[in-house]
Description:
It is built from 6 helices and 18 strands. It is α+β, with helices and mostly antiparallel strands. Helix 3 (140-146) runs antiparallel to helix 5 (187-196).
Amino acid sequence: MTHQHYLHLDVFTRTPLSGNQLAVFHEPPVWPDATLQAIAREIAFSETTFVYPPVSRGALAQVRIFTPGAELPMAGHPTIGTAFALAHRDRIVPGTKHIVFDLGVGPTRVDLDWDAAVKRLHFAWMTQPKPSFGMVFDNRSHVARALGLKVTDLAAGLPVQIVSCGVPFAFIPLKSRHVVDHAVLDRATWQRACAASGVAEHKVFIFSIENAATVPIRLHSRMFAPLIGIAEDPGTGGASGPLGSYLVHHGVASGKVCEFLSHQGVSMQRPCEISIRVTSEGGDISRVQIGGAAFLAGAASLRV
């Protein structure tokens, strides 16, 4: 057994002891998948990343992302947080404008904004795959019951729909922040709602539009994913890109570049701020980005 070092970051925040926690093993040995999964389960953050040499030309590193229950092909807070971790370890030269990570979905660009005065990474933007829009749930009352709500608590005029920018989520618009905060997912009822619609169980993302007149448009959100070992996630970058795409697709925002700010994790006392930027050309979404900051909370080692 040896001590394997990792960094602990709080992502989508600049405030200590808030945001979404992330463990980054920046120089791991080549462990079997079962060991990677066991380590993620042991640490029990929403995600843990393992940084390996790149597999594609021009990439900085391969980043493998594990929740306590499964490996993910991509995710936002691990990608942003890993960029900050590698900058802290001087594996990214200060002033570098962008890097590429090899993720499960393929090479993924991360644009970097620096604080020039202290040569410190200030903000990172992850480019996600273009969105795909899936099935719309017609059984809205069944969906509402799965959240302990009434069908009138769902936002009028917006569908319950599966959307993906690499990882699919079921997006459920609710009429107010109060309703979002009082929702409680009953997994068995949600599984029945999915089965009745002919789809497998999906991760659940609920949100309300707090102010559609501001730039960026402000959102209040929560995410539940018990099927991958996450009862609730404080900040979900992998869902934020498709969230912005959903809102553009359904006409909540329009224009060449639409910007949103999603506040997530508030009820968990782990507040996150996730920036979302969706670019359209000729009526089609051409680029999806999510961004945020990260705070280095500490460093530790695990005996493996």
